[in-house]
Input
Amino acid sequence: MVFKFMDFEKNFQQWLASDELSDSDKARLASLTQEEKKEMFFCPLQFGTAGMRGVLDLGTNRMNVFTVRRATKGLAEYIKTLGTEAMERGVVISYDTRRFSSEFSIEVAKVLAANGINAFLFDTVHPVPMCSFAIRHLNAIAGVMITASHNPKIYNGYKVYGEDGAQMSPESTNKVVKFIDKTPYFGINEVDANLTADNIKGLDNVKVHEHITVIGKSVDESYFDTISKLSLSPEAVEKFGKNVKIVYTPIHGSGYIPVTTILKKMGITVNVVSEQALPDTEFSTVRVPNPEEADTLRLGVELADKIGSDVVIGTDPDADRMGIAIRNDEGKFVLLNGNQIGVLLANYIFLRKKETGTMPKNGALVKTIVTTELARALATSYGVTTFDVLTGFKFIGEKIKEWEQSGEYTYLFGFEESYGSLVGTHARDKDAVVASMMFAEMVCYFDSVGKRVYDVLQDIYKRFGYYVEKARSITFGGLDGMQKMADIMAQIRSTRFEEIDGTKVLAQSDFVTRKKTYADGKVEDITLPQTNAFKLHLENGDWICVRPSGTEPKLKFYVATSKPTESAATSKAEAYLAYMENSVK
Output
């Protein structure tokens, strides 16, 4: 991502002078300190392959109605270049439960309509996977999802999807960005349509404007019918589903209706955390709405203890990521990380495919370059081929598309260490609704053979070794922060690492130059696309990777190791992290 720095004072004065700002907006601007002005106006909100995400406030570097309109105008201009058929196929628009999500989604529809592009706007809150599904189901040319995923409540975002339901490709994104860069923040035309979250709720396939159609129940039913066919253990669900004790929390997000609907459809009883069931823009029961964190699942664990449940499932606000807590042998709840969740789901899918005789000879698992190698070991044991892709679920979606066209491999499962996965090919982005369904079904299945999920995970470790992966982020704010991140990446690239904490470095991969350089000087080409990441390959299959976040001002460190015992692996992973953090200070 290339950051475009601007004259913040000039931008500030242009906004202050605009007649599109209300008196209260102008009062807000007038109250800013010089440092606040700089932060809010020093650059445009960056638009990458994951769209844009930022703090809700006024300014070019913030999420607000003006930056949303501008991004949409850029998207509209790009779609126009694709021709009238693309404009007619239109854009699916969905949103989560965050502040201003519904308002922003309506703004998107109105700007698209003013440009002669059909907009298909969901009638209520809908999660990422249903947006991705709807794009494919309705044969739309693109999609927009208003969400900031699991970020704190002060954030919102704008994700853009291509016609296959995957996040927009880098090539298409670059074209959209060029149009956005040419677009002013003010004077963007919208249609005059009286649309609010209240007056479109419950509508289904209803045209509310020449170019705006509200969609709802019909698409929902198609989605639920499609994903219910992914079930692998209907007999176990029928026998154990009604009595299984599973706790679920949507964390005030968009997962509540779809997750409870599909579990009910399958016949699985679920106990919902009532305090977190309803939409809440403030996510008032948690510090951050991130199911990766123990505090976020605290109420779920309390309910599980109360009813005697061993499993807590949580989905983030846009229901593309799923977090899990399970009870261990000591009777205490432990959080699973994204790698553990992915491995458990992969193991269940492969096991049931094998047991039912439905495992294809060309089965494939797709994971990212920073996802656990335990997945590869597991897949190999089932005769499944593992493919690595760059970080970003769109690259997993690209593999699905490639194999659908070539028939070379059959996609079985894909996941990221960051808690996202996709079972099935109905969508092209992470689907925590299906993940919740499959995890609940997995609980039923292992109940039927007298095992708990915790036992299954320990069996996997005993078979393949204890794989431990850890990640840490360093946050950099503002103009200086971006430069610091760039300097650190340059420093790491210029360093010749020979050993880390006593472990030899065998090779290092630079995904900018797309070269893998071995310790003996041998160089190999990297076939993956270019990205700003750097990976060290160590002895015994250990690895370390560093990359800037694509959506936040953060530098991310990933480390991975495997040892005979959990304590040894954890200790080694921590040592790797400490080494890398010290090396960039």
Remarks:
- The CA atoms of residues 150 and 424 lie 23 Å apart.
- The chain has a mean pLDDT of 96.
- Residues 338-355 form the longest helix (18 residues).
- The chain has three domains: 8-218, 229-464, 466-583.
